[in-house]
Amino acid sequence: MRPTPPRHAQVAPGPATGAPQADEGVVAPGGRRRTRLLLIAAPVTAVLVAVGVVGLHVVTRPIRVTADTTRLHAGKADTSRLHAGKSAVSALSVTPVAPVCCFYSGIASAPGSRPSASPRPHAVTKATASAAASTGNDGTSPPSSVAGGRLTYSTDFPGNSLPSGWDAYTGEPGGDPDGNWNPSNVTVSGGALHLLATPSAQGGVQFYGNPQTYGTYLVRMKGDYEPGLSINNLAILWPSQQGVWPPEVDFFQDLGGSRQSFSASLHPGPDGNCCVVSSPTQDSNGTAWHTYGVQWTPSALTYTIDGRVWASMSPSSLSGSAQWPSIPMNLTLQSQNQDSAQPSGTIETMTVAWVAEYAMNG
Fold first, then answer.
1. Please, what are the domains in the chain?
2. How far apart are CA 2 and CA 209, in angstroms?
3. Do the strands 329-337 and 186-189 form a parallel or antiparallel pair, or are they unpaired?
4. What digits encode the pLDDT tens for the residues 73-110?
């Protein structure tokens, strides 16, 4: 049996941050396109910061998202050709003073009414982390530890099938007639996970082998260049308990197409469609290799790209009856069509070199 397909409400990106222009050459789950009304009375304070695997420090210049051609952890640089574009990314903290409950219109079905399918039975025992993180097919490796956290799981997708503790989604995402997941659109080869899209389906997976409450999650991935299509890529923290939603943490979401920007959002409980806290849109070339991450603690959600903080939010960002996520969550990765346009053949929408999970120290 397959796990429940997530019912993912399409999140309209927030306003542009107005970050300074970078130098020339620097590039840095839903239904039909529905109108979303996101009402957040929230002044955003921009703070320029950078994060390494050993800690957090303030910098005095803009953080620019470039093609990740440096050796972040280990291995050779990625020198793949990038699509044109200019961007800069600055870190920002979402700290509303007097937030107003936000909502999305056009979502007709309640979370409990989304399509359900029983998960594949699996043991309670957690998947075992590698003693030493191995190298992904892009030449990089996950760090063996992060600030405030210890490695609990990592994989670089060896062999030709999903590793133990992973499963592929099947069926239509709740409320999204344009989306459809088919396990045959998920493949593993060449030391990478590949999510494919065909004229009738997309690919999505969940890792259920290491549910955690709090911790850091890293995903090394890239998307394809598909102008004219709206098949978005997402990296999500989803409740590990079957049939439970919200909360939901989308720490990466693009809009498909040329993939030149992305955003993040939190769908807090008890009503995931109310009081959503969404980040401003960030410019970045999503067709190049990047490491997207989130550090989730009782006091903050900190979003990172290639080890740099680009946005964060805290419980003070919530409004009304919204609740900070505090239950075990699983990592999910998915491509999902947000429009009626379909690819003419098979395309690869997401390529994942490795993922890593870290538990909070203490």
1. 44-108+129-360 (2.60.120.200)
2. 14
3. unpaired
4. 333 333 332 233 323 333 333 333 222 222 222 222 22
